[in-house]
Amino acid sequence: MNSENFSLSEKIVSSSYIRQGSQARRSHEQLIRHLLEQGKCPEEGWSESTVELFLNELAVMDSNNFLGNCGVGEREGRVASSLVARRHYRLIHGIGRSGDIAAIQPKAAGSSLLNKLTNSVVLDILKFSGVRSVASCFVVPMATGMSLTLCFLTLRHRRPKARYIIWPRIDQKSCFKAMITAGFEPVVVENVLEGDELRTDLEAVERQITELGAENILCVHSTTSCFAPRVPDRLEELATMCAKYDIPHVVNNAYGVQSSKCMHLIQQGARVGRIDAFVQSLDKNFMVPVGGAIIAGFDESFIQEISKMYPGRASASPSLDVLITLLSLGASGYKKLLSERKEIYLLLAQELKSLASAHGERLLHTPHNPISLAMSLDGLQAESDKAVTQLGSMLFTRQVSGARVIPLGKEQTISGHTFRGFMSHSEAYPCPYLNAASAVGITREDVTLCIKRLDKCLKTLKKEGNAAKSSPQVLLSGHEDTSQEVTEQK
Fold it and tell me: How does the average pLDDT of the chain come out, rounded?
């Protein structure tokens, strides 16, 4: 409805009512105008009606929604199912063109505008989350692993002789396979144990650089967000080292946007040294469906180079999902989620520490990890070798998702490389343990239920272990063993 249509409407319905309706619409349009002018996440979240009005306005700008359109090409935004069309708000053309994921589509002005605005809003989020000097970013419809691969493939053109990627070990398959898929040889640098924490071995990294030769190294591939007892890499020192040897530096910041500490590490690394790109997941940081990531960096030309490396057009779904989410939350809503996550991290740490003490275990001391926590399972290991892994399956069947139980001595071969002590980020971590994380969106109820169910599982395993120990004695001596009662009295 434009001003002319509103004027015509006054001939049909009382002008005072029409003017009121016109003013209501202008309030929606004012929000949209501010978004177009500023390209930033609105401070306060939009209503669903404003979001839907905006998306419908974008959709009518795409050629597949033109009333008189006659399409005779092979890609005309045709959709057989009206349900599918509605699911995508009739934004069917995707983003980018065959040569550049960030390019404008002549047939899809609305989808192109969606793409540009999403990248601009996400850049704003990265800045106020802690990386204030980030220069450019774009949303790519691939998860973190493949997005890292895209970064490595782009660097190949800058460093054609390079064969190796130096990688401080983190036991997560996709980031390792990202290097293999790109055609490079990962040089795994084992972490060093400092107290309970597994930290970057800077001397070993520099030793590998000098032995292999800087010109033969594609990049250093570091990590921020990770499972305790591993902690974020020493990004400032690695960035300084990369600047010293003129080696690119790519950071896996998978779920680090939600952590001010992880974002601060990236900001500081870029300030004192070199960080070429950092990659983060959409679903882990913004609570949207899996399938998207943000590639960001401090050199706009390099980020554009990465976007041009993406072959063909791309799905707009991840961009659409994250834009809807951020417009609905607003900057204040997202900041509130980040603040709540920090508070619940402290609650989770306190509850896990109390539970661990009650069962003769301890909360591992990992102050440099701002998201993940770990509780020792030495007592379970002493009961039996199978008890540790059994705890993991018990938690899962009791609907505790996300908790990771890490036994000792597990081996895993990935693309020909064997990791000893897999999942523990170390060849020989001193104890088995359980992981739990306070990630964005977690609630106090999640923590309460997890602790309650974990407590029950540990008690059940303890009883089963004591019963197994007493059974042979009953058969041999003919009388009951009282060790379980003694243990319980203690």
Answer: 93
Q: Of 417, 431, 434, 433, which Cα lies nearest the Cα of 189?
A: 417
Q: Computed over its alpha carbons, how large is the radius of gyration of the chain?
A: 27
d(CA 173, CA 414): 7
Per-residue model confidence as pLDDT tens digits over 203-231: 999 999 999 999 999 999 999 999 999 99
Q: How far is CA 488 from CA 52, 207, 464, 471, in A?
A: 60, 53, 13, 18
Write the burial class of residue 478 (CB in 10 Å: 0-12 exposed, 13-18 middle, 19+ buried). exposed
401-430 pLDDT tens trace: 999 999 998 999 999 999 999 999 999 999
240-262: burial string, b at 16+ Cβ within 10 Å, e else:
bbbeebebbbbbbbbbbbbbbbb
For tokens 């774009």, the residue is 138
Q: Quick check: 159 and 202 in contact, CB under 8 A?
A: no
Report the candidate in 236, 238, 248, 227 with the shortest Cα–Cα distance to residue 439: 227
Angle at CA of residue 343, ends 338 and 348, nearest 5°: 120
- Give the CA distances from residue 438 to residues 285, 346, 371, 449, 457, in Å, rounded to whole numbers and listed in that order: 12, 9, 5, 14, 21
Is 478's pLDDT higher than 90?
no
> Rounded to an integer, what distance in angstroms lies between the CA atom of residue 335 and that of residue 258?
9
| pTM for this prediction | 0.93
Q: What distance in Å separates the CA atoms of residue 412 and residue 119, rounded to the nearest whole number? A: 38
Angle at CA 240, nearest 5°, toward 237 and 242?
A: 110
Cβ pair 307, 288 in contact under 8 A: no
